[in-house]
Amino acid sequence: MRRIAVLWIGFAIATAVLGAAAAFETRASRLQAIKTLGIVSAIGEEMSLTRAGLTGLGNAAQSLPISAWGLDELIVQQATKLLGGRFRVQPVTYRRPAFAAVRDSAVTPVNLLRSDPFKELVRSDVAPQGLDAYIVITRARSKLGNGRMVEGVGLAEYRTLLADYGLVHALYEVRVIDGKSFDVIEKRAAAPLDNTGTLRLAGPSGPVDETFGGPASGERLRAAIVDLITRSLPITLGEMHLIEGQ
Prior knowledge:
Helix content is 32%, strand content 29%.
């Protein structure tokens, strides 16, 4: 009986490994078949200001319009440059607010079995249609400290009884959506660039010394966010095997 159980477990493990290998091969072959693609970015229309911590702060997250910063245009330009060595990247038009309005991330484990909300948007809101694939870059979410959620581009302040911590963040996720079936071929949230700080997020972020009332605003804050994006995007696309040599 024990021998049968061992054989059954071994068979189950082998089946799982073969299934994973087949899925990887299918994903790799689908990526290999892509020749033309368009890029959609919708993370940079607004910036969040979040306070959290142990001092009784109950402030709800605030947001400020930052469309004038041109972050999405910068992301499209950088992604086009990075991907242009392998793919023929074509300009596309889309309703950015429609993509930005999707707040529930389908990358998180709880949503893995749900239909990805961006599939239909690519089908209905992106032109031209008919490209081999579309890269969709949108906001991601992460927990801050005691559980307050932050997302996208923003500045967070976390207070304890002894110290204040400031964090600038640019949280985003990347999807590759098939241009014919509109299936999600690959998706990945950008990983942290440095996890050595006291306050950490599950995505690109970095410490700032100033609080919300300090000088970490305007062009200086924009420069910090641009730095997070430009350093993390090549890594993320490389991990997705979308850049030659990766």
